[in-house]
Predict the 3D structure of the following.
Amino acid sequence: MNHLIPLLALAPFQEPSNTPKLPDSPYFWLPVRASTVGESYDGLFMFIMWVSIVSALMLMGLMILFVAKYRAKSRKTQPQPSTDHHTGLEIIWSVVPLPIVIAMFAWGFQGFVELRTTPKDAFEVHVTGQKWKWLFEYPNGLTDDVLHVPMGQKTRVIINAVDVLHSFYLPAFRTKIDAVPGRYTELWFEPTAAGTYPIFCAEYCGTNHSSMITTVVVHEANEFKGWLKKQEELIDALPPVELGLKMYNQNGCSTCHSTDGTVKTGPSFKGVFGKAEKLSDGSTVTVDENYIKQSIEEPQSQLVQGFPPAMPTFKGKLSDKKIAGLIAFIKAQK
Ligand code: CUA
């Protein structure tokens, strides 16, 4: 075993480059909290923890005490028969914990109902989880890989996954829910402090699970509408290649398709435009505008030989303008 230790020392843990810095927390081991439900949930957590610590200490303490006190004096003396039970003691250890566990249940149940009852009048954002990216879509059609929400307003997040199970986890808002392929799940929160907080994937989903990280930006309430509008104008004004680059990063294309010739899960985009590609069915196709559009919308219909059918479809998720941008971007990777 000893020879393993130097090896471990040589491989320091490398944080993914996109790891957001968690704001400093005044709550010891709990992360900073920034939603209306945080105080109550943290309170319940601390209550259960202290009850557990006190009962564990009591149990272990009494056990050690009794082991010492009632230890047989010698191997030769026979153990004394003990009284079979003590009614008073039994009533005490049944009655005293009862209200404590009922309190845990009532407090927890109240929180559960609160968390799972989504307010109807909330601001709605859709999020799609896929290997290994979160993509958010706002009511006005804007998409972004960072979640932006207004402060002091209830936000409802509707979640789905395109490939495997993921889990949408917002530690600062004390909420989390699975992202499941083929169905919608949802959660809600009401932010109480402007700032930037991390979002993690909390369900192992393959190679880059640990870097499936993004952030939520809580805007001041009056700033938010302006921000949303400005983003829309910015995207409209982008030249196609830049729009394409934005889509390439936002939609997770970059996790599988490099632009420098490195072969990852999918073919590299470098020099791919105009190239004749051999497909998995043995035929050959020239990479042109139509081939790219079809590959985005029906990725498995014309699979390049030697690559796994790993890409999710983007049909209905990217406007024609965005697809045109991606085509221009791929064209530009000479
Ligand atoms: Cu997605 Cu883990």
